[in-house]
Design a protein that fits this description.
Blueprint (H helix, E strand, L loop, with lengths): L5 H10 L4 H19 L2 E2 L4 H9 L10 E5 L26 H8 L3 E6 L11 E2 L3 E2 L1 E2 L2 E5 L5 H8 L5 E6 L6 H6 L2 E4 L20 E6 L2 H11 L23 E4 L13 H14 L3 E4 L6 H25 L1 H4 L4 H11 L3 H19 L5 E5 L15 E2 L2 E2 L11 H4 L5 E8 L5 E8 L4 H14 L10
Parallel strand pairs: 2-3, 11-12, 11-13
Antiparallel strand pairs: 1-3, 4-5, 6-7, 8-10, 9-10, 9-16, 13-17, 14-15, 16-17
Length: 456
Amino acid sequence: MIERDATAQLAALRSGEISARELMEATLDRIEAVNPEVNAIVALREREALLDAADAAPEGPLQGLPFAIKDLADTKGITTTYGSPAFKNHVPSADSAMVERIRRAGAVIIGKTNTPEWGLGSHSYNPVYGVTRNPYDTSRSAGGSSGGAAVSLATRMTALADGSDMMGSLRNPAGWSNVFGFRPSYGLVANDGPGDVFFNQLSTNGPMARSMRDLELLLGVQAAFDPSHPHSSGPYTASERVSPLRIGWLGDWGGALPMEDGVLETCQQGLALLEELGHSIEEMKPPFSAEALWESWIALRSWSVAGKMAALYENGKTRDALKPEAIWEIELGLALTNAEIRRASAIRSDWFRMTARMNVDVIALPSAQCFAFPAEWDWPKEIAGATMDTYHRWMEVVVAASLTGLPALSVPTGFGREGLPMGLQLIAHRGWDDPLLALGREYDAAQSWTASPPTL
């Protein structure tokens, strides 16, 4: 049963083929067998409590489905650490708005999925729970920051997973685990909580799944309209058909982005499939300066991180618990001048205007610039002979979508060097979530790569 996708599991529950308790038993048995090898599920609740919760799951589109929440989202009654030792015993008294929607839809929350400290960096390790390992080679990274979510899907420990994406955190780990990950247009999945809703639009929650029908199922829950959030643009409604689309292949952005050998070639397998489906693939010249995008990104991201984490930095007790990359990013953000922030925003605005007038429907890029690297590394210091000058420079390929809140779907595109998976980003215009996901649905029906799960 757990080999089936979420849609099939839910159908089996509704037909009476299996009970929610039996599905929970099978899920927990799978976690017991596999999780010690990959360390994707953390803060797992006790078995008997979960079996009782399965019996009592409320009615809804996810009724009775076991679900683990990414350990950046507050989850009532379950330890939520954000990967930080300063919060290793933190148990929220309330759910975040997204978690509340998932719980209200009938999902049974079994625990959390592992993430890097504060979600910083695309490698899911932290001092609280340790490192999450790639299911296709456990000596390798699972990516991040939704690394635990991607691995839990690939290993059939869960059938659906939530994630969040500031700098590729729904896309890089999806590609490295041979599953689907979707960063929605900013506002489709409304972020909750107090604070600024104008300047900081770099991060969003979104779904991950082993099939496109599952991904859209979860997005339908996550994207419920939130009348308390002025950017909320839900609910999500699916398009039924796909017209032939013009897809611009940017590859390595005209040589500006270092790529490990084999990454581009693996992605071209996915492009060939899209062409077989009737879509036109065009080699694009870089539409914008990659260096300008990076300048804007690193300023606005660091400014955002500093705004969120300055209080932790200024408190001597919690500052000592922050990893060096977090301290570096906070200090960079705090040191920015008004002129630097204004320039970064102007570059972002120029890029946003450029995306609106592009003569292609979708931009295609790799979901990462390298295959999964050794799990003991903090981050890759070099790609294709080029030095990575920051802890996140190796993920520069995802910035084009993140900077302006464009929808970006990572689809599996096969296996490259040493049998490691890679993903292809399909990036559409702002608000084009439904036609982009319809394209993904068509692609999923034609691809066969997800039929090769890890052998754990």
